[in-house]
Amino acid sequence: MQISEILFPELCLLGEQATSRKKALQILAQSLQQHDNALDDFEVLKALITREQLGSTAIGNGVALPHARTADCQKPVGALLSLEEGVDFSAPDQEVVDLMFCLLVPENYDFQKLGGLNQIVELFQDKVLRAQIRNAHNGQALYDIMLGALEMCDSVELKENAPNNETNHS
Predict the structure, then answer these.
(1) Cβ atoms 87, 25 nearer than 8 A
(2) What are the angstrom distances between the C-alpha of 43 and each of 38, 57, 104, 153?
(3) Which pTM does this prediction carry?
(4) Which fold has domain 3-160?
(5) Beta strands 97-106 and 67-70: pairing type?
(6) pLDDT in tens, 25-46
(7) What pLDDT does 118 receive?
(8) Engineering a disulfide at 18: which of 23, 121, 149, 164 sits with its beta carbon 3.0 to 4.6 angstroms away?
(9) Which of 35, 67, 137, 169 is catalytic?
(10) 102 has which bridge partners?
C-alpha cells in the first residue's frame, strides 16, 4: 500500500494552533474521526499518546511521524498537520515540531506492508519540501505538494531501478 492511497485532502490540515504535543495529537485524532466515523477520537488520541510514551516520533527538522494501531481502524489512514507554531516533541535535534504526518492502522496491521512509510521519512528530510509544506496556503495545497513529492520520488525510484538500455556494440 502506498501513502497516496491513505492520505486525503480533508486530512491535510494547515495553520492549526496547538500549545502542546497532546493538543497537536488531539487535532489529528479529531480530524481522523471526522474522516471516518467508525473511529473514536478519544481511543485514537490514547493510542497516539501511548506510542509517544515509548519514545518520541519526532525525526528532526521540525517533523514528527506519530503513528498507532487501534481496534476501530479498519484500514490504514494518514493525516498531515502543519501547525501555526511548533510544539515540543522531544525531538532528537531539540527543535520544536510544526509538521506532522500521522499514520493510523488496524490493531494487527504489519507496518512493513506499508512500503511508503520509509518514503515519508525520506521526503521529510528534503529541506525544499519542508519549506513548500510550511508555505502552503490551504489543505488542498498541502495534499497536492505531498502527492507531487511522492510522484517525483516514485519516478526517480523507477529510473534508478530500470535496466540499463545501452547496448554494447563491440
Answers:
(1) no
(2) 11, 18, 11, 34
(3) 0.86
(4) Mannitol-specific EII; Chain A (3.40.930)
(5) parallel
(6) 999 999 999 999 999 999 999 9
(7) 76
(8) 23
(9) 67
(10) 79
How far apart are the C-alpha atoms of 47 and 53, rounded to whole Å? 10
Q: How confident is the model at residue 165 (pLDDT cuts 50, 70, 90)?
A: very low
Known catalytic residue at 67 = yes
Q: Which of 10, 22, 71 is nearest to 43 (CA)?
A: 71
pLDDT tens-place string over residues 69-123: 999 999 999 999 999 999 999 999 999 999 999 999 999 887 666 666 777 888 8
Measured CA to CA, the distance from residue 74 to residue 71 in angstroms comes to 8
Q: Which of 27, 22, 105, 101 has its CA nearest to residue 61?
A: 101
- Specify whether the CB–CB gap between 123 and 129 falls below 8 A: yes
With H, G, I as helix, E, B as strand and everything else as coil, classify residue 22: helix
